[in-house]
């Protein structure tokens, strides 16, 4: 019997948080091995099977997978969350890439110098309310279904709901004018696997604080 997937990353959100959300939504139990020091990272990088010397890295099914989107695509295929045909997969990929563009801004936001934080937050608010959220609201309205593609939960829905939670931490009013996004968030949050992940004590990570910010800088910078 195959063991649990093992996620290698630091003890915080970053690019690995989408992997945690995805595994949790798919009902997959997984382990984490945290990179706590620069020496931990150097040790991993000395492993010839550690491609590109980058994290997050997931050990799964006899493989050591890196590159976040490759990891997520593998799990999407494995757990039937990637649409039923090429057309649906193309839509899922398109929506996911849009989500990823915005998510990059949010990932980097806590690690910016203090003097850049206000400008970064303004950019996030502007792009969410004027570009990305209206686009996803329009998709949901256009077909009147429960999910973004094919009326079935896909990786795009999981990533979008994760994004909604993160944006609301920065701007509590972010989705106030988007009723269909609110409904999608509620729908996905009430799935048993996701509901469990949202409870205290799960493998979901809290927002980056000063302590973690300094720890990450010591490891990677």
Please characterize this protein's 3D structure:
This protein has 9 helices and 4 strands. It has 2 domains: 6-79 and 197-220, Glutaredoxin, CATH 3.40.30.10; 86-189, Glutathione S-transferase Yfyf (Class Pi), Chain A, domain 2 (Up-down Bundle), CATH 1.20.1050. The termini are far apart. α1 (16-25) links the parallel β1 (6-9) and β2. α1 packs across α6, α4 (86-108) runs parallel beside α6 (155-170) and α6 (155-170) crosses α7 (179-189). With 221 residues, the protein is of the alpha+beta class.
Q: Can you describe this structure in just a few lines?
A:
With 221 residues, the chain is of the alpha+beta class. The protein has 9 helices and 4 strands; from the N terminus they run E-H-E-H-E-E-H-H-H-H-H-H-H.
Q: Regarding quaternary structure, how should these chains be classified? A: single chain
Secondary-structure element order, N to C: EHEHEEHHHHHHH
CATH hierarchy: architecture of the largest domain: Up-down Bundle
> What is the rounded distance between the termini?
39 Å
Shape: globular
Largest sheet: 4 strands, mixed
Question: What's the number of domains?
Answer: 2
Report the CATH topology name of the largest domain: Glutathione S-transferase Yfyf (Class Pi), Chain A, domain 2
Helix content: 55-70%
Class from secondary-structure proportions:
alpha+beta
Overall pLDDT level: 91
Q: What is the CATH top level name of the largest domain? A: Mainly Alpha
Number of strands: 4
Largest sheet, order of strands side by side? 2-1-3-4
Uncertain stretches of 5 or more adjacent residues: none
Contiguous helical run count: 9
The proportion of strand residues reads 5-15%
């Amino acid at each position: 019997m195959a063991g649990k997937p093992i996620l290698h990353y630091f003890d915080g959100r970053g690019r690995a948080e989408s992997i945690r959300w995805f595994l949790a939504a798919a009902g997959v139990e997984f382990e984490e091995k945290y990179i706590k020091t620069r020496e931990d990272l150097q040790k991993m990088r000395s492993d010839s099977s550690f491609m590109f010397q980058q994290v997050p890295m997931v050990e799964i099914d006899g493989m050591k997978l890196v590159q976040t989107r490759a990891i997520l695509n593998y799990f999407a295929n494995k757990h039937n969350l990637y649409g039923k045909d090429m057309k649906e997969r193309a839509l899922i990929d398109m929506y996911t890439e849009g989500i990823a563009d915005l998510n990059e801004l949010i990932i980097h936001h806590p690690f910016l110098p203090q003097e850049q934080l206000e400008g970064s937050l303004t950019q996030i608010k502007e792009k969410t309310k004027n570009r990305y959220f209206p686009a996803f609201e329009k998709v949901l309205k256009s077909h009147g279904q429960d999910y973004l593609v094919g009326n079935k939960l896909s990786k795009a829905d999981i990533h979008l709901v994760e994004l909604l939670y993160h944006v609301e931490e920065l701007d509590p009013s972010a989705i106030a004018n988007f009723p269909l996004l609110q409904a999608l968030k509620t729908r996905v949050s009430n799935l048993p696997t996701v509901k469990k992940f949202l409870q205290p004590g799960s493998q979901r990570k809290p927002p980056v604080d000063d302590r973690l910010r300094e720890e990450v800088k010591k490891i990677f910078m």
